[in-house]
Amino acid sequence: MRISRNIALTPLVGWALFMTQSVVAAGSSVPVEQEQVRLNVVFNNLPYKAGLQTGWGFACLIDSLDKVVLFDTVGNGDILLSNMQRLGLDAQAVEAVVLSHIHGDHTGGLGTLLARNPDVTVYIPESFPASFQREVMQLGAAIETVSEPRQLLDRVHSTGEMNHGIKEQALIVDTPRGLILITGCAHPNVADIAHQAQTYMGKNIYLLMGGFHLAGRSGAEIRAIIKRLQALGVRKVAPSHCTGDNVIGLFRKAWKDDFVEGGLGAAIQVPR
User: Please, what are the domains in the chain?
Assistant: First the structure.
């Protein structure tokens, strides 16, 4: 797979104040004065905040841990970096990149990011082709492959590469409130991913967000997955990307005040 080396040249826009959702209490929209894990949705096909450019894919920047982590790099790196600039987020501050799976709408912008900031470690599923790994290293980044569930950084873990369906890993952030689980597309089944994360960490999921890969699935399948996630005790959900608009509506109805907006530009905070 070729990695684009185009560098985003869009100048910094003069506004950086963005919406923040606090998920400390159900339905709360008022930030609390304590340290937070900040989850910034910097790319999505689902719009939320005006003034940003949507595109097919999903990326989330976590900028409040010991290291700044970018989960997935989407298919258009120029748009990714432009959205980050508009949100007041610095691409050169990224220290770790976690890629969920090999599809271009989740990996294609990596070359653009590395052209701007090569001093990162990229965590990829072990199944990624050797040619992809060589090209990333040629661009100056370090590579670590992930097979089994394991810790990547302080409070940051991977579910490990899940091998049914498209091979994929999801990102776990450990917080006092419970786990934050971020999925790229959830090809291996979002409920199975949630179960694996909880089994590995021994804690419940406080927030599940990202693409759930449920567009086009039957109503019975979707209802079964919602019931499984509720039975697992998933407290809050923020579905987007490949979940499907109608399915997102079903999640909104099922979680009520514990539904969190997860479209492009959403900034979600969880106590750390």
Answer: 35-271 (3.60.15.10)
